[in-house]
Amino acid sequence: MSTVSAYAATSATEPLTKTTITRREVGPHDVAFDIHFAGICHSDIHTVKAEWGQPNYPVVPGHEIAGVVTEVGSEVTKYKVGDHVGVGCFVDSCRECDNCKAGLQQYCTGTGMVGTYNAIGRDGTPTHGGYSGAIVVDENYVLRIPDSIPLDKAAPLLCAGITLYSPLRHWNAGPGKKVAVIGLGGLGHMGVKIAHAMGAHVTVLSQSLKKMEDGLRLGADEYYATSDPDTFTKLAGKFDLILNTVSANLDMGAYLGLLATDGTLVELGAPEKPLVVPFFPLGAYRRSLSGSMIGGIPETQEMLDFCAEHDVTPEIEVIAPDYINEAYERVLSSDVRYRFVIDTASLRG
Hints:
The protein is built from 11 helices and 17 strands. It is globular. Helix 4 packs across helix 5 (188-198) and helix 4 (160-170) packs across helix 10. It has helices at residues 42-48, 98-101, 151-154, 160-170, 188-198, 212-218, 230-234, 252-256, 279-283, 297-310, 324-332; strands at residues 2-8, 17-23, 30-39, 65-72, 84-87, 90-92, 114-115, 134-138, 143-144, 178-182, 201-206, 222-225, 239-244, 259-267, 288-291, 316-319, 339-343. It is 23% helix and 26% strand. The chain has 349 residues and is α/β, with parallel strands linked by helices. It has 2 domains: 2-159 and 315-347, Medium-chain alcohol dehydrogenases, catalytic domain (Quinone Oxidoreductase, Chain A, domain 1); 161-291, NAD(P)-binding Rossmann-like Domain (Rossmann fold, 3-Layer(aba) Sandwich). Strand 11 (201-206), helix 6 and strand 12 form a beta-alpha-beta unit. Residues 11-342 form the Enoyl reductase (ER) domain.
């Protein structure tokens, strides 16, 4: 076992503090790598603050992880020392259910996917995430980062990127399709970039127009304020696909009304309260309401390769680990454009 520096939460109310954690010895199928960058996801904050259930403190968050391989196990065939690699939201799954066999490990029906942090690994020990200096992961749950994507910009792709890429690909976004993205934050800005790269006509639906210049620069064709009631009249029945990236409870009837016949609204944020879905806006035009959660290993690799090919990367602000707590406060006040990424150099020792 090896000891590495990390930042951990010890309670829902205390700030994250520097500590040390242990990583397992490299097994035959393991890849060990130094973490160079880790993105801050809103899910990290929800988990740390016990908003999604009681965590197993101490929690070392981080599931947008990018780094460089330092050691591989004797049976590893996919990676070698020096490779640029990443890890996303999970580090294992049952490997035996139909979903795992189909490459949909995020929907594992056996053990369930094993989260990169705040979960229990196959060896019975807690998993710790990317706010740390190094990590050891089975090679089958490691992603290859193309050389053309800088590691700091690669990190957020492992959650924010795949969270948007998967539904866009599943619902066939592309030329001739009209896609709307609700919210222009860490998730939403990636949705705009990826949908644009796929060739879709992209509209941003945001509370106000204050980020309109950014939205159009990032690839949106149109931008509307949802605080303006005329927006819902003007855009009624327009979209083939709407991706909701915000976690607020919205007026579902109003947003479903923006869908064309057979259109789909996909929930990607996790609202605090149950959704209230009126029948008539849903049923009248055979519209669908669905959900999506990250992506499996094959699709995540496909996403990384797509982003490399189309030069799609997130807008980031790189910070030092000792700024994590301030960054959390800024995320909560929507004061980031558009993703914080931790430079973990000081944690690598």
